[in-house]
Fold this protein.
Amino acid sequence: GGIISERRWSNPLVKQYGIKSVPWMLIFKGGTLVMSQNPAPVGKTDGGGLGFSSKLRYAAFGKPRALIIEPVPRDDAFGPSAVGPSSANVFKLQLQTQEALKRCSIAFDLATSLPEARRLVAEAAPPYGLLLASSEIGAAALEEVASRARSRCSK
């Protein structure tokens, strides 16, 4: 409540962000102010209240959607005597990644090949804001998919 008190002291945040009453909601995305308003309940015009949870459902304020790119390895892909990742180990790591994203409530899709990743990036709605990829796909392919994903995201 002290942020808008005219009797105690003048707070520069009040003028900078146009705060007019308490409570007041400021939402930032990427360091830029995207919303500054009284969080009045939906349909209530006299202000006040704490009905701002519906405002947090806007896609601009949500968690990013993730794409996991993890090609399916073949145990014989590296030859009988080569040392490479086994399919069992890769699947274990893939499941751990998925569980971590689930615990963070981040929606994700899994691409098991580069063509599938390209298709998912092109069709995703909303576009992906997070890309998790295996180094097995190669730097050039990773840069290509990342560039496509970046081009679909609004600033």
